[in-house]
Design goal:
- This protein is mainly α.
- The protein folds into two domains: 54 residues, no CATH class; 158 residues, no CATH class.
- The protein contains eight helices and no strands.
- The relative contact order is 0.14.
- Bound molecules: fe (ii) ion (2 copies).
- One fe (ii) ion binds next to helix 5, helix 6 and helix 8.
Length: 237
């Protein structure tokens, strides 16, 4: 195995071996919207030792559990059509299932425990705002962007997809990423030990899983799909 370079970007490292995203998530290293930063810089920012983190990343390949074939698929080399299908059937589907459920949990927790705890209502509102931003974004991807990606794969640069559209989607991801980080902060970092009741515990667990899946989803779009689209639009394959 090639030793892992601390000068590689988090996006490259996660795109090469998707299982690494789990470690990045656990260490709170932003591999999705902040994926351009190098492992060394990201670790320095978080006060972590890059060599130790590199060892951890190498160890999961050596000693980790058997890989989940869907999660571990090398999307960087899969047909764009299949990557789009995966994003919709796994990540968009999960969001559509989870967003109403989490919305209800935020409302229940704010209603039951909100007195003297204004941050619980702020979590409810912050989640609702995030959901309002995500729903039309998902719909637009399914209606316009992904069909255009498939056409681009078939027809190359002749297809009707331009760089400005790809850049706009990426900017929307950045806005979502900022809201997601603010939500985590408002909710006290999703510390399960701080849960006020079993509903609050269910909410914190759900938000933490929601965040991890959204990071993976945005990573697959920003760092795998979009660079391929930019290459095809430029005519370079
Ligand atoms: Fe998406
Ligand atoms: Fe997206």
């Amino acid at each position: 195995m090639i030793p892992l370079e601390p000068t590689a970007s988090l996006a490259e490292l996660a795109a090469e071996r998707p299982a690494r995203a789990r470690i990045f998530e656990r260490l709170r290293l932003d591999y999705c919207c902040g994926g351009a930063q190098t492992l060394a810089a990201a670790c320095a920012d978080r006060g972590l030792d890059a060599a130790t983190v590199a060892e951890l990343l190498e160890a999961i390949e050596r000693d980790g559990p058997p890989a989940d074939p869907v999660e571990e698929r090398d999307w960087a080399r899969a047909p764009i059509d299949e990557l789009c299908e995966h994003i919709v059937s796994v990540h968009h589907q999960r969001l559509r299932e989870e967003m109403p459920r989490i919305g209800e949990l935020t409302a229940t927790v704010a209603r039951v425990h909100g007195e003297g705890r204004p941050e619980l209502e702020m979590v409810e509102r912050a989640f609702a705002a995030l959901r309002e931003e995500l729903e039309p974004h998902l719909a637009e991807e399914e209606r316009d962007l992904f069909p255009a990606c498939r056409a681009l794969e078939r027809q190359g640069a002749a297809a009707d997809l331009d760089l400005a559209t790809v850049d706009r989607h990426q900017a929307e991801h950045e806005a979502v990423g900022r809201k997601l980080a603010a939500l985590r902060e408002l909710a006290g970092g999703y510390q399960e030990a701080e849960a006020l009741c079993s509903t609050h515990l269910a909410l914190l667990t759900a938000l933490s899983e929601f965040e991890a899946d959204l990071h993976r989803h945005v990573h697959e779009e920003n760092n795998i799909l979009f660079p391929r689209l930019r290459g095809l639009i430029a005519g370079g394959g």
